[in-house]
Amino acid sequence: MKLSKLVVGLLACAATFGAYAQQPIVIKFSHVVAADTPKGKAAEFFAQKAAELTKNKVKVEVYANSTLYKDKEEMEALQLGAVQMLAPSLAKFGPLGAKEFEVFDLPFMFNSYADLHKVTTGPVGKQLLAKLEPKGISGLSFWDNGFKSFSANTPIKTPEDLKGKKLRIQSSKVLEEQIRAMRALPQVMAFSEVYQALQTGVVDGTENPISNLYTQKMHEVQKHLTLTEHGYLGYAVIVNKKFWDGLPADVRKQLDDAMEQSTRYANQIAKIENDTALDNVKKSGKTQVHTPTPAERAAFMKALVPVHKKMESRIGKETIDAVYKATGFDPAKL
Ligand code: LMR
Known about the structure:
The chain is of the alpha/beta class and 334 residues long. The protein has helices at residues 2-21, 38-53, 71-80, 113-120, 123-130, 173-180, 194-200, 210-215, 241-245, 249-284, 294-304, 306-310, 312-315, 317-327, and strands at residues 25-30, 58-63, 85-86, 137-152, 166-169, 185-188, 205-208, 224-240, 288-290. Helix 2 (38-53) runs antiparallel to helix 10 (249-284). It is globular and about 85 Å long. The N and C termini lie far apart (92 Å). (2S)-2-hydroxybutanedioic acid binds at residues 32-33, 71, 89, 145, 170, 191, 212, 233. The site of (2S)-2-hydroxybutanedioic acid has 9 residues, from loops.
């Protein structure tokens, strides 16, 4: 009798332990955009790959559309370990103290995705991600979104058309300077609040890659969109360093593989998603879409490229020059 009780007890213990041992490692992945955007889709892809390659030892929970945290809060949550993974836009790293990242916010710095990849997949990209380590953050990868265009309720053909307008930007000193270069008024605001601010007239306009504009329905409250493509918006996928370093080595390796595949996927779909979003904006008939003439584009470049020089002491001449060298861009030739 006593022996059978002991056996039952041991079996119960083993079952509890077994159940405990099988609990997956949970990675909370928070982001601020819609699920059907380049970042949203790549995050879901990573969740699937992570489950597949770790044989369900890891469960990635993706929280889209600021359901967990808004822009600024998510970075704090990552550092505190309340979430384990994020993919903030590159503009979000300046306020964290990694000012070199602001090189990505410089207007007309990148002419194409190919230019951009020369930087993100090369030594400059590596050096930038390494700057995050002392902040308790490990940078895993860069994911593309696309090129930003200006929208407003009045036509935009020249920089003067934006003069005096209140334009929403992300919290970035470079973007502030970019807006001021057109004598417009920068308004820093969390991404989740932009639609309402446009709808109620708290701001007059904004800048976005088209996938963000469309999936937040901003085109419904902006009468004009001009395809200025004056700046780049993309992401760095980051993790809480302590959490990441504490993972079993085999699991971390499988997750690194999942991230590599997800990065390939993210960068394959980014342009397609933005092109499709633009088609959808056009089809909606709610916004008039204008493609600038070469002369109009040149006028935007003339107004905005001087921001590079102005921001040199903040971002660091070395970083700006390293990007010029990688892409071949020479502002003196404008
Ligand atoms: C923004 O605030 O406009 C962007 O950071 C949103 C995004 O794509 O993450």
